[in-house]
Amino acid sequence: MKRISLALLTAAILMASLWTASAQQPAAKPSAPPQKSSQQLSPEEVIKRFTAKESELREVWRDYQYQQETKLQVLGPANVISGEFYQVSEFVFNDAGKRLERILKAPPSTLDQTGLRMSQEDRDALVNLQPFALAQQDLPNYNVSYVGKEKVDELNTYVFEVTPKVMSNQRELDRLKKQKIEGKYFQGRIWVDDEDLQIVKTAGKTVPEFEQRFPKFETYRENIDGRYWFPTYTYGDDYLEFDRFRPHVRMIVKYKNYRRFQSDIKFLDAEEVKDEKPKTDDKTKTDATAKTGEVKKEEAKKEDPKAKPQRPRP
């Protein structure tokens, strides 16, 4: 049966995770002044700013822990599921700050019943590929053209068409084909919030395609921690056109439970705490205090009932 590398298939989801949010924006009043300065920027300036934000996002993404739910399905007649890969993973950090995957749920895959097969390498690529981000360093590889403005949910956005330059360079396409490099670039449209100037939605697919086929998809982001727009949902439903095989594939990836990584605080061990021996005067005071210990305890409670004992200094 036909074998398809699902790592490349799902790169469409995970390399291009760009999203919208449902956060509401204040409605403009009839008497309000003209548009904000960010809405008056030229398309060139918007591109400059949102790609800078994406470069920052690519770095910040590494500081967050999150849970990822991945579902790949092959649909038969009447959209009945004939095969499925499902996995829930949590990405956390160890003490060295290295991101690790903890698989929470992974029932046996039934994709082999449909003619598709996923190797261990495919699984690794599926969960480890980072969402697509059109950062400043990526711009030389793309043609980005302004389409217009569009409202997405409650967000006012700029819309851009994104096309990899390699798609019009036959020599480079031949080189990639010879090296069997597919699905390296994103092609489609992106939506940029006109206030935060960050990408909030993407729709398209990964290219180029030679032996493989990649489904169309839409990916969305939500505002996390009031500052960054992170991927939260990707959906794709498409037919993959092969010579003798036309599978109907549905893909869903959810990112959730974002939380910023906090390193553990390490305290000195007990033996590292050095207490000075009480002097003679201190000993006298200690004896005197012992006689009225109960009274002192009651007075201390009245003064600050919530006070916590402070750790002695070395």
User: Span between N and C termini?
Assistant: 71 Å
Please summarize the sheet with the most strands.
10 strands, antiparallel
Categorize the overall geometry.
globular
Percentage of β-strand residues: 25-35%
> How are the strands of the biggest sheet laid out side by side?
3-2-1-10-9-8-7-6-5-4
Please estimate the helix content.
10-25%
Q: Number of DSSP helices?
A: 6
Oligomeric state of shown chains = single chain
Mean pLDDT: 74
Radius of gyration from CA coordinates: 28 Å
Low-confidence stretches: 1-37, 264-314
What string gives the helices and strands in order? HHEEEHEEHEEEEEHH
Please, how many domains?
1
Q: Tally of extended strands? A: 10
| Class derived from helix and strand content | alpha+beta
In short:
This protein is 22% helix and 33% strand. With 314 residues, the protein is α+β, with helices and mostly antiparallel strands. It starts with 5 loop residues before the first helix and ends in an 11-residue tail after the last helix.
3D architecture notes:
With about 325 residues, this protein is an alpha+beta fold. The chain has one domain (about 5-260). It has six helices and ten strands. Strand 4 (about 140-150) and strand 5 (about 155-165) form a beta hairpin. It starts with 5 loop residues before the first helix and ends in an 11-residue tail after the last helix. Residues about 1-35 and about 265-314 have low confidence and may be disordered.
